[in-house]
Structures are given as structure tokens and as C-alpha cells.
Design goal:
Layout: H1 17-20, H2 32-45, H3 53-72, H4 77-95, H5 98-105, H6 115-132, H7 141-160, H8 168-188, H9 194-201, H10 205-214, H11 218-222, H12 244-247, H13 251-261, H14 266-276, H15 286-293, H16 297-313, H17 317-324
Helix pairs in contact: 3-4, 5-6, 5-7, 6-7, 8-9, 8-15, 9-10, 14-16, 15-16
Length: 325
């Protein structure tokens, strides 16, 4: 059965041939055996030609047609032919994008997993992308697949590179604080103090410091931020993970929402963002926000009401309406 189609991004990623070509790492970066295995694998990936956009549309449409036949026919010659075409077209879509996986996996080296393992996890994400890709949307496959590959790699990093389990609220605090730290660094041109970070986040300094010290290496993950400042990594559980659509939300809408929220105190900003999933992978309830900010559920509700009142009074309801809807 075909997996349900998920809303996909409209923004094109500039993933040209040069970007997906593999550069052999220096000898000291990987053990000799690791290099040998990777080198052999990369030779294999170069056996498969990259598809043009027209070619990938043709192949993926053929894959969907044969899949429809398989779902309709339970036996007979037609089913055998459809199975053969489905397997062949699926293999073509996967093989032609193996170099894309390597290109993305290299960005996550030295974060707790060997490059070969990162590539393996990325290939799992690639296979998911092939299963879910809808050619009717006329979207470049690499745009869609990149999200799934990154998702698979970063989830594996969060699950396998740490020996302790960290509560989701602590992960969110580190993520929020790291983003605030990066913004302050860019604005002031210096490393911000913990007090400044806590003020920007709207949380107690001790709480922010404890969270960041308990998961120090997540800052290196967040350093892989995309151009607009949102992190490349994902540490949410399956049922709370973002969709490809959310991963590339319209830039103009983000700017409008960001401008509206700038009118609020930092803590109220954070509450509204978490409540409606603005800049986050999911929406949070009052209790979850309270755990992050060390506030009672009722106090979070009061601050949310006050924040929305301020936004209405400032005439920004229209700017937020489409996002919140």
C-alpha cells in the first residue's frame, strides 16, 4: 500500500551536480578501514547517472502507475509486469540520488556517528522519500528528499549518539536558548553571557544554564542552521516531528509573524510561539510550556491571554491570522 502523501515544500533547494559529488576525506578523519569501505561505496554510487527533472518525473510517474496496478490486481500476468516495472523504477529513483545522501551526511560528521552509519541512515530517509513522493506536484525530487534524508540522519544522531535520555522539555530549552545565543552573537559581535541568553529567552538563568550544560553537544548540531536561522536537526519523537511543509514555511509569512511578535516581551513571545507552533515543529499545550519555563499551567494561560490582548490592541491580529489558522 502506498504511504499517505505529506504536504511538501514549494521552495527549491539549489542542489546541483557539484554539491552532490563526494570529496574523499583526509586520512586522519576516518580510520583506514572506514575509508576503504566508503571509497568502494562511493565508486558504486557513481555508476548510477543523475536524473534530470524531466527524467525523474517520467520515472516517478511510471512507478506510481505500476503501483496503482499492483493495488488493483491481486494476481495475473498484469500484476507480474507491474511488479517488475515498480521495482525497476523505484530502484532507479533511489540509485540516482545516493550521492545526494552522501553530500548531506557529510554535514553531520564528528557528531557521534561514523560517516558510513550516517549514510546508511540517510539512505533510509531517501527510501521513505521515494515511497511518498507525488510527481503530480511538479516538485524537484531533491527538494523533497533532502528533508527526509536530514530527518533520518538527525533522528539517528539524537537516538544513537547519546547514552542518556533527555526530556523533551530540556531539549526544547536548549534549542530555544541556542537560537537566542546565536542571534545575540550576530547582533553584538561577541559571545553573550548566560544572563543575556536567559533574558532573551524569558526563562530563569539557572534553568537555562542547567539545560545547556546537561546537553552541551547539541549546540554543535544547531550550528548547522539554515540561512533563515532555523536549525537543520530534529530531535522530536515520530509523532511530534515536523512535516516537509513546516520545514520550509513561506519566508514572507515568517517575517510578518516575527515582526508582530517583536512587540511582545520575550517570555510572552516564547509562549505564543510554542502555543501555535511558530518556529517549532509542533504546538505545545499549557502544561508543556509550563515545564519549559518553570511556570504553572494557569500562569502560562494568563501570559498567553495577555500576549494575545497586546497583539489585538496593536492591530496585528491580521498578520497572525493565517499562520494560527
Amino acid at each position: 500500500m502506498r504511504a499517505p502523501t505529506i504536504e511538501v515544500p514549494e521552495q527549491e533547494l539549489q542542489l546541483g551536480r557539484a554539491e552532490v559529488e563526494y570529496e574523499k576525506p583526509a586520512q586522519e578523519e576516518e580510520p583506514p578501514f572506514e575509508l576503504d569501505v566508503l571509497g568502494q561505496y562511493l565508486k558504486e554510487t557513481h555508476r548510477y547517472p543523475l536524473l534530470s527533472r524531466e527524467e525523474e518525473q517520467k520515472v516517478s510517474r511510471a512507478m506510481r502507475r505500476s503501483e496503482a496496478v499492483l493495488e488493483e490486481k491481486k494476481s495475473g500476468t498484469g500484476r507480474r509486469g507491474a511488479r517488475k516495472e515498480f521495482d525497476a523504477t523505484r530502484a532507479t529513483m533511489i540509485e540516482s540520488n545516493l550521492r545526494l545522501v552522501v553530500s548531506i551526511a557529510k554535514r553531520y560528521k564528528n557528531m557521534g556517528m561514523e560517516l558510513s552509519d550516517l549514510v546508511q541512515e540517510g539512505n533510509i530517509g531517501l527510501m521513505q522519500a521515494v515511497e511518498r513522493f507525488d510527481p503530480r506536484r511538479n516538485l524537484k525530487f531533491s527538494t523533497y528528499a533532502t528533508w527526509w534524508i536530514r530527518q533520518a540522519i538527525t533522528r539517528a544522531l539524537s537516538q544513537k549518539s547519546r547514552t542518556i535520555k533527555v526530556p523533551i522539555n530540556k531539549l526544547e530549552m536548549v534549542r530555544i536558548a541556542t537560537r537566542a545565543k546565536n542571534k545575540l552573537l550576530e547582533k553584538d559581535g561577541r559571545e553573550p553571557s548566560m544572563k543575556e541568553i536567559a533574558k532573551a529567552v524569558g526563562a530563569p538563568e539557572q534553568q537555562v544554564e542547567t539545560a545547556m550544560k546537561s546537553i552541551p553537544h547539541l549546540e554543535s548540531l544547531d550550528a548547522l542552521a539554515v540561512e533563515d536561522g532555523s536549525p537543520r536537526w530534529e530531535l522530536q519523537s515520530d509523532e511530534r516531528s515536523e512535516t516537509p511543509w513546516q520545514a520550509v514555511l513561506d519566508r514572507d509569512m515568517r517575517e510578518k509573524v516575527g515582526s508582530a511578535l517583536e512587540l511582545l516581551p520575550s517570555r510572552q513571545q516564547l509562549i505564543v510561539r510554542m502555543r501555535f507552533g511558530i518556529g517549532f515543529n509542533t504546538e505545545y499545550n499549557l502544561e508543556e510550556i509550563g515545564k519549559v519555563l518553570n511556570l504553572t499551567r494557569e500562569r502560562v494561560r494568563q501570559l498567553e491571554v495577555e500576549a494575545l490582548r497586546r497583539l489585538r490592541a496593536a492591530g496585528n491580529r491580521r498578520a497572525l491570522h493565517d499562520y494560527i489558522q
